[in-house]
TrEMBL record, chains A, B:
Keyword Translocase set for record: no
Protein name: 5'-deoxynucleotidase
Cofactor requirement: Mn(2+); Co(2+)
Record keywords, A-Z: Hydrolase, Metal-binding
Organism name: Serratia aquatilis
Domain (HD/PDEase) ranges: 40-158
Pfam families for the chain: HD_3
GO molecular function: hydrolase activity
EC number: 3.1.3.89
PANTHER family in the cross-refs: 5'-DEOXYNUCLEOTIDASE HDDC2
Length: 202, 202
């Protein structure tokens, strides 16, 4: 899949340092969204940073059940599996379903580079995020879905236009936000309708 | 400086969303270090992600006084001031001293985009990191300094060679790691000496 990173001796930290160098590859996984006002596609590492900062910044708006520290950690590691499995566009539902087994194998290989306690912690957080049932995972999913919508709304619909996305698709895929974070959805919904009027969404 | 990001109405979240779109610009601040095995310089947003994941992964090796959640938050926001002040090479000591006032003004402008509670929280964490005196700030500094060294050790000394850096400079600037995280320094020191023998450091 990707080229080997040398393993240097760091005593009891050898596995962790090797993991950290291996996941440098997330900086080369490209998404559809471009950095605002540029022609460069953002990568999954910088997206993960943006998502984690969003969790920190929006913490006061989360419901009381949400532990924002766990959401931040989910943000930091939610895309690491893409190093082996690749990024799949959020509106490509067939590809998303097909890739699930590859992502499970990727989590096993990548988090498996870590010592047992960190491996267990990271794997459990990633699985919880994927399952999307806990309050923390639901809030994390809202933020992960919202970031590219917000970027499109501030970047003249760039990735929607380039990928021929319709308002109907955006509503179907992201309407769950209405249940989890109704205040955010109320404004997003209005801006999405505006975006369609401007021709940014089909 | 940088172009204006449109401000969209998100009710009580308007300021936070504007802040999140403004800091998208951190993805365009380039560092000297290149993504391992590529010719692309990493940017400060993806570096911040890498540093935050390092904090998560190395948590079991931190001293008991360290609150790793605060270190993760410091990692996420420590470089945001570079949006206005730019990135200065860690070995350019004159430039680092000269830029301090610009960074303070940048923190004021950028964190000032947020509502009062988040502004105060982010500013206080950034100041604590800059002062480098608390146990959390010291552990954060060790990780921030270690990441580019680790990347160089795994990437044939790329940024050291390109910027004509000597072993003496690296030891003078990073020797503080020996006091804060002696086990890590023991291994780093050995690999840095190896790097000099290989011609990666002067």
């Amino acid at each position: 899949m990707s080229s080997a990173v040398p393993v240097l001796d760091f005593g009891s930290m050898t596995q962790v340092i090797h993991f950290l160098m291996e996941i440098d590859k997330l900086k080369s996984i490209q998404r559809r969204t471009k950095v605002i006002g540029t022609q460069r596609q953002e990568n999954s590492a910088e997206h993960s940073w943006h998502f984690a900062i969003a969790a920190m910044s929006l913490a006061p708006y989360a419901s009381k059940e949400v532990d924002i520290q766990r959401v931040i950690q989910m943000a930091l590691l939610h895309d690491i599996v893409e190093i082996d499995a690749g990024d799949v566009f959020v509106y490509d539902l067939a590809a998303r379903a097909a890739i699930h087994d590859q992502e499970v194998a990727a989590a096993k290989r990548l988090f498996g580079l870590l010592p047992e306690p960190q491996c267990e912690h990271f794997t459990a957080l990633w699985q919880e995020y994927e399952e999307g049932e806990s309050a923390d995972a639901q809030f994390a999913t809202v933020l992960d879905r919202s970031m590219p919508m917000l970027m499109n709304l501030h970047n003249e619909g760039q990735s929607w236009i380039e990928n021929n996305v319709s308002l109907e698709q955006v509503l179907a895929r992201n309407g769950m936000i209405a249940n989890i974070y109704p205040e955010l959805w109320q404004y997003l919904f209005r801006h999405l309708q505006d975006a369609q009027r401007k021709g940014w969404l089909k």
